[in-house]
Design brief:
The structure is a homotetramer.
Chain A (H helix, E strand, L loop, with lengths): L4 E10 L4 H13 L1 E11 L4 E10 L6 H14 L3 E6 L4 E7 L4 H11 L5 E8 L5 H6 L4 E3 L7 H14 L4 E4 L8 H6 L4 E5 L11 H8 L3 E8 L9 E8 L6 H24 L3 E4 L2 E4 L2
Parallel strand pairs in A: 5-6, 5-8, 6-7, 8-9
Antiparallel strand pairs in A: 1-3, 1-4, 2-3, 9-10, 10-11, 12-13
Chain lengths: ~290, ~290, ~290, ~290
C-alpha cells in the first residue's frame, strides 16, 4: 500500500471517562484508519492522561488540514494539547558540538547505520575540531567561534542558519556554550542536551570532578530538553555505570563518554520517532 | 464508586485491521465502561496481535456470563484467544519449596508488605525446613516427603490439596523435584518456576557450578512457566549480576540468591496482575 | 591448622617508594605469616596509598600486643593510619529500625543464610512493629519510643544498651530518627545508614517523592557511614533501578525497597569483612 | 624520571606459602623497583595463584635478559607460568572486519580519543565496505576476499601481512569468517573475537534470531579469545541489555550493536594493558 501515510497523534489532557473511545472512534469512523499502535498513560496524582496513536490511512491523499479541523472539536471538548506528526517526513537536524567529538561521532555512525529517520543537515561548532568528521560524513560544517562579546551576533547567525535549513531539532552533542533564553525560546522542546551527570546531582560545570570528589559509586549521564534554567529541563533518558576506587578521574571520564553516547542517542531516536511527550517538566516516553 | 468492578481483558489473535476499534467500541458502547488502560503489542514476524484492556464498569452488578456471551461473536470473527479476569478476586496461591528458603522468605515478606494481590493458601514441601517460617506467617504447612517410589502418590496428594484449596497459581520457590507431565498438564501456564541460570544457558542441575566452570562474567536467573520439557517453558523474567574472579562458588551462589528472588517475585506479581500473555513459547509482559 | 589465626591489616598513608616491600617483609620475616590476600590502591591525585593484607599465622598464639609494638615503628616511618582486625572475632551488631521492616527482615534472613560473620545482638526501635520479627529470629528487642523532649534520655539509654552489649556496628535499617552529633561521635565509621536516593541527589526527607516530581528515569539508594552532617557521610554502596512513567509513587517506592535492601546488605557485609577504608569522606572497598 | 621503565609481571602457579614474599623481595632487593600496583587472586578450588605486579625501575637501562635470567630460578621453584611486559611498548594491532562496521568504527574512535596504548597497524577485510573508514583514520586497508576454495591461500597472505607488521594482537571486529586451527595456533591468546550473544547461550550463527525465537528478556554479547573450538574460548567480558516485546528483531539487533562495542572495547583495553591472564579456559581480569 504505497499510498498509505503513517501518522502519529500525540495527546495530553485531563483524564476523563470516554476519552479513549472518543479518540479511537474518531479515527476509525471518520478516517477509516488502521491503528498500528495505541499507547496510553495516566498520571494518577495530577489526573492527567497521555496518548500516542500510530495509524496508517488508506486514503491516497491524507488531508492534514481537514483532519485538524475535524479533530479540533473533540480536542476542545476534552481540553487536549495535541499534535499530529508524520513518520515519512524526515526531520532536519542540526548538531552543535565543541571539542569533545565522541557524541557527534556516535550520532553520525548511528545515522549511517540507519538508526535515525532524519536528515542531518549541518554541524555547528565554536571550534574547528569536528570539521574532518563532518566532512567525512558529507555534512556541511559551520565554524562559528564564540566570545562573550560576540555571543549575541553569533546566536543570530546560528538562528539564521537554522531557519534557512528548516531545522526541526537541535542536538547539543557536548556543545560547551550556554544558549541564551531567547535562543531556547525559539526552539521549545526541540533542543536536546546531554549533561555528564545523573541529574539532579552535579549540575553545572565539571560534574565528573564533583562526582569523583563526592566518592559516588556510580556515575551517570542525562539527556534532557533545554529550558531557560540550566540543567533543569525535562529529563528524557539517564543511565549509570559502576565505578570503583580503581577509576581515577581519567578512567571515570572515559566510562562517562560511553554513558553520554547512550543516553543522547536514545533521546534523539525517541524524539525523532515522536515518542516523547512533556508535561510538568517531565517526559512520558512511549517506547 | 464502590460498586465498580475492575476487569482485565486479555486477547491474542491474528493482526487485522479494525481490531482495536472493534474491541474498544464493544466495551464502550455495549458496556459503558471506563477504560483505565489499554495496552497492545504486535509480533510483526508472526502477524499476531496482543491486547490487554483494564476497565471499570459503573454497573453495580457486572454480569460476567452476559459479557462473555456478548463478546463471543467478536472473538470468533477475529479468531481470538481471550480471557477476562477480575482485579478484586484474589487468587489462591500454593508455594512449593525444598530446603533453600530465600525465595519463600522473600515472597512472604513481599506479601506482608502488600505487593501481591493474592491469598497465600499453603506451603508444600518435601522437607521440614520451611515449617517455622510458614507458621510465623500463619500459612498452613504441608510436609510431603518424596522418594522415586512414592512420587506418584505424593503428586496425587498434592493435587488433592491444590484442588481442595482452589489453587490458581503454584510457585516453585526452589522446589527441587521435577513435576510429572500429568501434574504440569493440570495447571497449564499456572506453575511458575525459578531456574538459577540465564536460560537457555546452563539448563539442568547445578547451573552455578557450570557457570563457574565456564568462566562467565555475569550470572543470571530466570523465572518461567513450567512446561513438560524441563527449563524450556516460556520465560517471564530474567536478570543478571556481574561477578569477577573474586567470586568463588560460595559468593557466586550468594549473589545468585538475590537474582532468584528478584526474577521470581517480578514474575509472580505480573502473573497475579494478569499482565502476562503467552504465545509461541514466549511471553508478552504488559508491565 | 586449627591454631592459625586469620588477621586483616588495613593501612592508609602517603604513597612512597618501598611501602609494599616494607609491609610484606615485616609480615613474612618477623611473623612468618602466610599472605592470603594483598590488595592495594592509590589515590593518584591526593598521593595516598591504601592496603589491605589478609594473612594467617602458624603461631599457635598470635600475640596481638607484640605485633602492634613491632609494627609501630614502620607505621610511624611511613605515617600510616592502620588497624588490625581478626576474622574469627564475630562483631556485635545492633539493628535500629522504625516501621518499615523490609531492610531488617532482609538482614535477618541473610544472617540466617550465613552471609554475615556477626552476632546480631539486639534490635532497637521507636515502634513495636519489629518485635515479632526480632523474636522469631531470637534476637532481643528493645522498644524505646522517642519524642523531641525525650530524645536525650532515650539516646542515653540506647548508648547504655550498646555499651552493655559491646556493640561494634550499628545498622540503621530505615531508622527514621536523626542521631545527635554526640551519639554519632561515639561510633565513628561504625554506624551504617541506608538513604533511599542516589546521593547526593535528593538528600533529606521524602526522596522518592522528590525523585518522582523531578521526573528522573532511574531511582537509587545509598548506604553510607553516618557523620554529623545528614546524608553527607562516606558512601559505601549505591545502586539504581530503571523506572518509567508506569511507575507512579507506590510502585516506585516498591522498587526502591529492593534497592535499599541490596545496598545496605552489601555495605554491612563489606564492613563486617573489614573491606572498607575511609578517607577524605570517601570509601575504598577492597571487594 | 624519564629513564624509568614501567614493567608488568604476570604470574600463575600453584598456590603456596611464601609466594608473595618471594616475588616482592626479588623485585625490591634485586632490582630496587618501585611497586606501583600488586594485585593477586587465588582459585581456591584449583589451588592456583595469580599475580600481576606493575613496577617502575630507577635503572636507566633496565636489562630485560638479565631480569629474566635472575627470575628464572624463582619461577622454577614455584612452578610459575610467567611473562614480563612493558607499558611503553605499544603493541601492533590488526583489525579484521567484514561488512558490519560498528565495532571497527568504535575502536577507531576510542583509539583517536587515546583509550588504547596501541599502534593500529592495519585493517583486513573480505569486503570493501570498511575501506573509507580505515582510510579516514589513516590506517592501511587490505582487501582480501575469501571463498571456501581460496581460504588457505588467503590465510597464508593474512599471516604474511601479520608477520610483516609484527602484529601482537588480532581483533575480530565482526569478521564473519571462521579461522582455521593453524591460523589460531599462530596467535594463541592473541586473537579477540566478539560474539553477539551471552555465551554459552546461542553459539553459532544468527544468535540474535535464536534469542528472539527463545523469548529471552535480556540479550548479550561476549568478547573472548579465539581457540580452535568456535565460541568456546576463554571469556574476557560480557554484558547484557534488557529487551521487551516491543523489540522486534531490528531493534534487538540495534541494541546488540551497542553491547558488542562495549564488550569488545573493554576486552581490547584490558588485553593491551596486560590485565588478562588465562587458565583453565577462563580469564582473570586484573582491572
Amino acid at each position: 500500500m504505497p499510498s498509505a501515510k503513517t501518522a502519529i497523534l500525540l495527546i495530553d489532557c485531563p483524564d476523563r471517562k470516554g476519552l479513549v473511545a472518543a479518540i479511537i472512534n474518531f479515527l476509525v469512523e471518520r478516517y477509516d484508519v488502521n491503528i498500528l499502535n495505541a499507547d496510553q498513560h495516566q498520571d494518577v496524582e495530577l489526573g492527567l492522561f497521555f496518548m500516542r496513536v500510530e495509524f496508517a490511512t488508506d486514503a491516497p491523499n491524507f488531508d492534514e488540514p481537514a483532519f485538524r479541523a475535524a479533530f479540533e472539536p473533540i480536542a476542545r471538548e476534552f481540553r487536549m494539547n495535541w499534535r499530529i506528526e508524520f513518520a515519512d517526513a524526515p526531520q532536519n537536524v542540526a548538531l552543535f558540538v565543541s571539542q569533545y567529538l565522541h557524541c557527534l561521532a556516535d550520532l553520525l555512525l548511528r545515522h549511517q547505520a540507519g538508526e535515525f529517520r532524519a536528515n542531518l543537515a549541518l554541524v555547528v561548532s565554536n571550534h574547528e575540531d569536528a570539521r574532518p568528521l563532518a566532512e567525512f560524513h558529507g555534512i556541511p560544517f559551520h565554524y562559528l567561534p564564540v566570545t562573550p562579546a560576540t555571543k549575541p551576533e553569533v546566536e543570530a547567525a546560528q538562528l539564521a542558519l537554522l531557519a534557512e535549513n528548516k531545522i526541526d531539532l537541535i542536538i547539543l552533542a557536548r556543545y560547551m556554550q550556554v544558549l541564551s533564553p531567547s535562543f531556547v525560546d525559539a526552539y521549545p522542546r526541540r533542543i536536546i542536551n546531554v549533561h555528564h551527570s545523573f541529574l539532579p546531582a552535579f549540575t553545572g560545570a565539571r560534574p565528573y570532578h564533583a562526582a569523583f570528589a563526592r566518592g559516588v559509586k556510580l556515575i551517570g549521564a542525562t539527556s534532557h530538553y533545554v529550558t531557560e534554567v540550566l540543567d533543569e529541563g525535562p529529563i528524557i533518558e539517564q543511565d549509570v555505570a559502576r565505578i570503583s576506587q580503581n577509576d581515577q578521574l581519567p578512567s571515570l571520564i572515559q566510562k562517562g563518554r560511553d554513558l553520554e553516547r547512550m543516553v543522547l542517542s536514545r533521546a534523539v531516536q525517541w524524539h525523532l520517532d515522536h515518542r516523547v511527550l512533556t508535561y510538568a517538566n517531565k517526559t512520558v516516553i512511549f517506547a
